[in-house]
Amino acid sequence: MNHTVIEKIFRRHSKEDIKPGSIVWISLDVVSARDFGGPNVVKNYRKTYKDSRVFDQEKVFFTFDLTVPPKTIQYANNQQVCREFAREQGIKVFDVDQGIGTHTFMEEGFSLPGTIVVGTDSHMNILGAVNCFGQGMGDVDIAFGFRFGRTWFEVPETVKVIVKGNPRSDFSAKDLTLKILGVLKTDKLLGKAVEFYGEAVESLDLSGRITMLSMITEMGGISGFIPFNLGTREEIKKLNGLDDIPEEVRADENATYSEIIEIDISDIEALAAEPPYPHNVKKLSQIGKVKVDFGFIGSCTNGRIEDIEIAWNILKGRHIAPGVRLAVVPATRKVYAEAMERGMLQDLFKAGAIISNPGCGGCAQGHIGMTGKGEVMISTGNRNFPGKQGDGKNYLASPEIVAHSVLNGYLSGELN
Amino acid sequence: MKEYTFSGRTWVITGKNNEIIPDIDTDQIFHNAYLHITEIEKMGQYTFDNLEGWKDFSTKAKPGDIMIAGSNFGSGSSRQQAVDCFRALGVKVIIAVSFGAIYKRNAINSGFPILMFADAERIISEKKIKNLDKVKIDLSTGKLTKVESGETFSLMPFSKVQKDIYDSGSLLNI
User: Fold this and answer.
1) Which of A76, A157, A228, A236 lies 20 to 30 Å from A67 when distance is taken between CA atoms?
2) pLDDT tens digits for A198-245?
3) CATH class name, domain B10-133
4) Architecture of domain A158-264
């Protein structure tokens, strides 16, 4: 056999011949919708399938993570449309208190190695961190998935990326992600799957893998995978509390790749993505002393307890610079609880942070606020397109850099 | 039988220096401020209202128009509104160098015609096709014809799945 990871996952979910470029029907293990997209999934579903039952009540979910709790009547109405549908159909809603849907799926054991999970979230491919194929889809796609538990897919080609250079302890998963994004930009992986190899990526812990694989979207790719290291399986089991999980799907030794790209990271240093594009990656030292107004720590890319812990270690016992705001948004309730129990939230609060309930935070005019014209935001998020986080400029970087920047009052990778 | 040929005015989504703009993401097409909107007929007015130079697109576009965009068009979020807003304005076909993966699915699955035009960047920079040119497009052959000069260009025609879904109107009718 000569299949890549995604091809092997497809083979488990399809009776058809799986080869890049062919269009095949695949079965879906989980089909979900969020508070954005969800209301139109319901609308499409009711219009087309009337009172028919969803394909499997145990495999269909709503996850409200964007406008949580709803800040306008329209959002409240939209969420209620989903809740009512869920009650009629007997399907579960992870409601506005829960946090980010993809992270909830990992924590609750709904995304497991070798499975396929889809939803109305363009960062579903985060689930690659647990060796699950996650795919974001629009409301027509998901309505069909709700009803039939399957969809068509063009089998993507896979690119193999070999990351060369010794991993150093002084760079973060986000620096590594930005480094790779800066090289691959948006054209190398467009419409393709990717597998990463090399010590620097394979040594990442689960939270680092989430960071890395979440930004495949910003690289234009479909989904990414990193072979598990000796600890990954245990980390996943610890997270979802299951006694056992399926074996990881690994690529065959002679798998066929559309391209093999080597990226040397030995010159890596603190990096940030300059607006208006995530792939506009620069060394902090090149960007210079940019004054910051607002820092954000959270998002599906950097909202795990490990990310908050990094910021906490830098911020505790200190206070953010005068005139600067900092928002911290844990990815999920579970992350929030741990941050609270370990005293992180208290220290971050004392350091001057605004701490909010779990969720996406900023990405969709979220509840944590945006920037005004002329302001500069430094964020651990994944997108800095014009207007995405407000009228201001938005730099993307690691939790370390955000923490240092809000303390110093300007973009920086270390304490002044 | 669904329509396979369309004639209309073109909109070439160019930026500074008249270069076609790459990587236009869904927040520039249909900003997240309007994601609470679920009725297609209300979506048109917000099309491109966060894209510098094109904020008045909804007032300029007319039913029947054909749009030509750059590479990775519609990257970013999974929002269907970024496809539906063009439908609301009556735009008939979207042509792009390439599409964001989710955007491509969303257009195909909702039966909205999109075609890939690998050579668009060069054609546009050489001004062979400009705004408001009258063109004819055949979805099944991928042939784009400039009505005035008769000049033709080759685009990637519909794929099989795209054709099947287009013929049914939507993935939901399959």
Assistant:
1) A236
2) 999 999 999 999 999 999 999 999 999 999 999 999 999 999 999 999
3) alpha beta
4) 3-Layer(aba) Sandwich (3.40)
